[in-house]
Every structure is written in structure tokens, then in C-alpha cells.
Design goal:
Distance between the termini of chain A: 39 Å
Shape of chain B: globular
Structural class of chain A: alpha/beta
Number of domains of chain B: 2
CATH topology of chain A: Rossmann fold
Oligomer: heterodimer
Shape of chain A: globular
CATH topology of the largest domain in chain B: Rossmann fold
Number of helices of chain A: 12
Strand order of the largest sheet of chain B: 10-12-11-14-15-16
Radius of gyration of chain B: 20 Å
Strand content of chain A: 5-15%
CATH superfamily of chain A: Thiamin diphosphate (ThDP)-binding fold, Pyr/PP domains
CATH class of chain A: Alpha Beta
Amino acid sequence: MGAGCLTERMIKGLSYEERFVSGHRACAGCGEALVVRHVVKAAGPNSIVVMATGCMEVVSTPYPETSWTIPWIHGAFENNSAIASGIDAALRMQGKRDETNLLVFGGDGSTFDIGFGALSGALERGNKFTYICTDNEAYMNTGVQRSGATPFLANTTTSPVGKAVHGKQEPKKPLPLIVAAHGIKYVATCTPANLYDLHKKVKKALATPYGSFIHAFSVCPVGWHTKSDVAVELSRIAVQSRVFPLYEIEDGVLTFTQKIEKEKATPVLDYLKVQGRFKHLKPDEVEKIQVYVDKRYDFLLEIEGKKAFDTLF
Amino acid sequence: MTKRVIEASHAIAIGAKLTRPDVIPMYPITPQTHVVEDLAQFINNGEMKCAMIDVESEHSAASAFLGSIAAGSRTFTATSSQGLLLMYEVLPIVSGMRLPGVMAVANRAVSAPISIWNDHSDAVSARDQGWIQLWVESSQEALDTVIQGVKISEDKGVMLPLMVCFDGFTLSHVFEQVDVPDQKTVDKFLPKFSLKHKLDIKNPKTFGPIGFPNSYMYFKKQQQDAMITSLDVIKKVNKDFKKSFGRSYGSGLLDLYKMGDADYAVLGMGTLCGTARVTIDKLRKQGKKVGMIKVRSLRPFPEKELQVAVKNLKALAVIDRHISLGQEGPLVTDVRSAIYCNDLTVNGYIAGLGGMDITVKLFEKVFSDLEKGKQNGSWLFD
């Protein structure tokens, strides 16, 4: 890497070294690529990446090219956690475990749905790795199909807006909380609009013994039907409207890393109106989503600061 | 070497232990379970230094197997039936990444109806996924083939995963006398595990990229070339094994029994070959010139060797313990294809599905069919 020219553009305090380098084929304005780039930047050079099938695997490794300057492996859609279990065990046996960071990436399809069992199993076994779920709230790589992470009333190609049914009818699976219930020591959420926060959380997660989990908000301009220059701004609005709360669960205790008071919160409408996937919503549906979002946030406020999750590791 | 009377599953576990794996991902399934139970006990007794990963499914067992090998550790696992079917997605990923490792498969029928008993449906239906498949007949061969398998799989010209297929219950739960090799001899026979391409922070590489239409087919060609190379490697390892341990199994690819002057022969895999031997001994006493071809290596399939083996036969019967529904037994298809130019009558028989016995009486019927010049095989119900 030519460090000289990049130094100019580096964000103060963050390393200019790239491990997920330019030339990959991600769409313009991809929020997921931004998350991935900063996670591996924060993790440092002694890292191995396991990645599930999905956009990032496709765009970063068109054989014989690769965007990865660190060891990287992709097996299938649902087995990233299981592959990581094998790597974790092998490194331990070789005496190399302490010197190596193990990062496991999966999209929401991989993490919330098809690979959930493998993730749960690996967490229960105490395998040591940091799992980063890059959540763009649908199966984007296959063409925007509904996943367990698709939000209430969103339009996808398999929860389409029709005369009878108006988008996805079910709520989003509360994955970070389910993961926290496994008794692991560190769970956090992050967005690419809060880079210092993201870097800090990745480092904390990697320093945790056993498994750790980061839920990363990942704007998909193609699937969300937004302009291609909104990923960072929309991430910020997601936090400020309380749609995507920023928090950490350390030793079973939830702490907001950016707490948004109800009075100061941006209306959810501001978050919804710039996205084509919500353009079908009628005012009463927007109101339903506002109530839904507030309820979820209220729940987090209720458990804030308390030992809400038992820690087993 | 120590002579012991042990269960075949235990023999497999001892074989695996002697190869010094670093990691064993495991998931229980009948009738494989004794293998991983024994290995867990070895580890917890402090008899072997190895990490066992108690995964939550066979899909994860195969995936952890993949990850562990890619990270540079010798790895072993075992499964059976539905378990192998659940692993199915990962099988071609392991072979496509050219990761060497051995998996024992206790062959069992597949559902439905659910059957825990032996046939070859599980592994035979996975024959196209780029794994070498060696099929064994006895506990001794099971143990020895795990050791041979590691050497074949890790050969630099091969670099393919390998299944040691042993009949569920019919072999896995049978006690036989077994010569247990000593660790020193095995250590001399097997080199230490080393991978040129692995996940290494000092030498980063990308594993499992996307192959577009301009590259994918080259990967497959290389896998096929490696399979063809493995034909000679399997033979060589079998020969070298004899030098070190005093035993070998036919050519390594095929094991022939009384084929020298045989007019009629049966061909099959696994424990049914033992019953065939007994039948042949009986018929030979009656003056009948009969023999047997045991296929030890289903993949790669030893076409050329088979062409030579059947050269002087008048007719051949192939016993499939699996049916490719809508076609015939896959083994007879392979055999017919291999010896197409030999102009030989080949009858395909389906037998022993879901644990139905394959008896001496059934083999006598098969030989009698051949002698009578019958041109069709049939289903052999005990």
C-alpha cells in the first residue's frame, strides 16, 4: 500500500493500513463494505477472516484477484461459525491462538437465519472468535428477499407490497439479545457513521475470552432503494431515530454508547422517507412503526445498567 | 504390534489415534458413535493430545473439519447415513479447496423408512463430491486403511479428502482379532502434517474465492487429475504399508480372490466380500471355477485394472448394496462402463438394502445364474 497518499485521507487516530483493499466490486455507496473495511482495519494485521457466502465474498474474491491482505476463507452460507470453530481449535493446538485474531463475518441471512444454529453451537462451546453480523436487512446478494432481519412492513421481493399485504408483516428477530442470552461476555452494535465507536468495539470484542458478537448496521442502497451517497448519513439517522440503538452488553449489562432521549429523537419518518422500500407506507403504518421502534427502545431502557443477561463464560 | 480382539469401531478409533490428529470435530450418529466415543475417551485419558470439537450438527462437523485443516492441522472425523447427507454441501467444498483429511463412514441406509442398518446408500450417493473412497471388509483393514488413508490424502500429488467406508453394524459392531500397530512404526510411515497453502498470518492467502466461468472448470480439471494421480498413490501406499506392517490389501484398488482360473465371478464392496469368499471356497470344493473381485477404491475407480481382472471371465455378477432409483446399482454402471470393450456378460444385483442379510445361499443363486447363462440380474431378498 502506498501509505503516503492515504495518510492525507486518514481519519485522525485510525490506522491508514487497509486489509480489505480497493478494487473490490461492491456497489457504489455500499454500507456493508464500509463496515467490513473498518472492522479489519481495527483488528490489525494478525487476523484471520472467515466469511459466509454473500455480497462481500462475491465482490472481494473474483478469482484470481482478492481484496484481502490477511488470510481469508469462505466455505458456504451457513457454516462460517463452524469453520471458525475448526480454526480456533487448530490454532490452539498449534500454540498460535493468542497471537491471532479470528473474525467471522456473516450477513443477516447467514446470521439471523441459515447459520444461526452453527453460531449458537459455537458460542455454547466457548469457541473464541469475534462474530460480525453485517445486517442489511434482507438477502441482498440474491436480489432482496425477506430475512429474519427484515424490518416490520419493509418491501422485499418475497414480502412484496400488494393490494392485500403491505410488506413484511412480522417484526425483526432481536438477534443481539438472543446472542447475549448465550452468556458470552461481549455483545455490541455499531454503524459506519460512528467509526471511533466501531473501532473501539471491535478491539474490545477481540480482547474478550471466548465468543463475542457485533451487530453492524449495513445500508444497502440497491436493496433499500436509496441514493448511493446516503450510507453514512442514513446510519446516523438510524441511530438518532432510535431505529438502530447503539449499545454494548458487557458481562450481561447493557450500556448505551449513544443514548437517544425520546424528546430529542429524530422522527422515524425521517428515516423511512428516504428509502424506497418504505415508500408504500401510509401515515397509520408509519405511526405503527414509530410505536414499534419506541417499544423496542423502551425495553432496552428498562434493562439498561442491570445484569439482564447471565454470563456463563 | 499387539494382537487384540476389538470392535471394528474401536479399531478405527485406534487407527485415527495412531495418525496423531490435532483436531476431531464430532457429532454422534448410530452406528458410527463408538468411534468418536472411543476417541473422546483416549483424549480424556490423556492418551492423545487432540482437541475434540463437539459440534451441534454434522454440517458443522464437516465445516469444522474444513476449517481445522485449512488452518494447518491434521483432522479426523466420522459419520454415517443421514449425517453424511447433512454434510453433503460441505463435501465438495473440502475437496474443491484440496484439503487433505480422513473421515470414517459407518455405512448405513438412508431414510425413509428410517433404518439404522447397513447398506451403501450414504457414501455411494456421495461418490461425485471429490473424495477418495476406500471400502473395507474387516476390522484389520479398517484400522490399516485409516493410516493408509492419511498418507494417500496428504500426498502432494493428491491433496484430496478421503473416506474410509466400513459397513455399519455388520462390521462396526463386530469384534475380531486385530493386530494393532505400534506408534513408532506409524510415526515412521506417516510424515508430519504440513500444508503448503494454509491460513497463516505470516503468509496470507485467500481460500474459497468465487470462480467465474473462465476459471471454475480449471479447478475441476485439476481435481480430476489429482484423482487419476491417486490411483498410483493408493497402490504405492498399499505396497509401502506391507513393507512397514506386513499386510496389504490386494493392489490397494482391487482385491482379487481366486480369480486366477475363474470362469465366473462376483464383484462387490465391504463385508459382503467376506460372505462371497466363504461361498467361493464351498463352490470350489464342488469343482466350480469361481472367484471374487473386491472393489476397494470406488473413487478413483480402477478401470484399467478391472479390465485386466475380468479378461478371462465368462460372466460377472455385480452386487450393489445401493440402488440409483430409476436406473440400476451405481457399481454395475461403473463396471459396465469400465469393461465395455471386454464383451462380457455383466449382471447387476441389488442386495442387502437396509440391513437385509446377504447370505451364502444368495451368492450360490448368483453363481448359478451366471453358470446358466442368465442375462439379467435381480433383487436378492433373503
